[in-house]
# Entry
Amino acid sequence: MAETATQNASIALYHYLCQYIVGSEENVKTIRMMSTARDNLQSNKTWTVITSGSLGEGLMMRGSDLDVMLVSKLIEVCEGTNVYFNANKTYFTLEMEDTQPGFTKLRLVHSNGRKILKYCDEIGSNFYCSNLSFKQVFPFDMFSTLHGTCISDRDGLLDFAYCLHSKLWITPAKQWVTRSNNSWPRYDVKQAIVKHGVLFVAVGVKGSSQEELEWRISFSVGEKLLMYSFTHTQLLCYALLKILLKFVIVLDKDCKELLCSYFMKTILFWICEELPSSIWKPENLMYLVI
# Structure
C-alpha cells in the first residue's frame, strides 16, 4: 500500500512538473532548438556563442538568468606542441604542474602577431595568458560587473564567460571515457563529448598567488550533451534538486554557501552512471529524489 501510494504521488508530481514548472518533453526540445538556433545566428568569424546554464539545458525556470559562453575562434589551446599550427591562429599550451586540479596556466607557443601580447604576462622568457586582461576585452560600459567566471550586466540577468578551446580531449580527463560500464551515458554521447574537446574559462583559484594567470578547465558543452541525453524523468529529478536548493537549503544560513546547482548536477551525473536506466521512470520520481 505504501509503495503504491508513493508511486501514485510520484506520477502526480511528474505531471505537475511537466505542466507548471519544467514543461513536457516537447517543450524542452523546443527550448533547446531555439537556443541552438540563436547561438548559430549570433556566432561569427571571431566568436562561437554557446548558451549554457539552465536555459541551454532546456530548463526555463523562474529566477534563472541567461548564461552565455563566448569561445574564441582565433585562439586554440593544445596539450602539447607537437601539433600542426595554423599560421593564422594563436596557440597556447597547458602548464598544470603548479596549479590545482581543474586549473591550468596557458603558455604562448605561436602567434602571427604581437597583438596577443597585451593579454599576456611575461615571466622569464615565456608569455602566459592573463584571464583578467582577456576579460577586459568586453565593453565595460555595458557589462560592468565581474561575477566569478563571468562578466554581468548591471541587473545581473545576463552573464558572459570568455573561453578558449582545445579541439582535443586532454589527458587528465581520459579516465572518464572508460569509467562507466553501465548504459549511461551511451557510447555515441561519449564520443560526441570527446569530439568537441575542452573549454578553458577565464578565472583562477581565488586567493592563489597566480590567480590572474590560471584558467579553469571546463566541460560545460560535455555536461550540456549529457543533459540532452537524459530521460525526462532524469531531467525532472534535476529540476527538483534545483528547487530544493533554492527554496529550502539556501534559507539555512549554515548551508547557504555549501551547495550550488553545479554540485547537484554533478551528483546526479554520478548517480546516473551507477543506477540502471530502467529505474528512471515517472513512478519512481520521489524515491529517486529522496
Residues 2-21 form the longest helix (20 residues). The chain is about 35% helix and 20% strand.
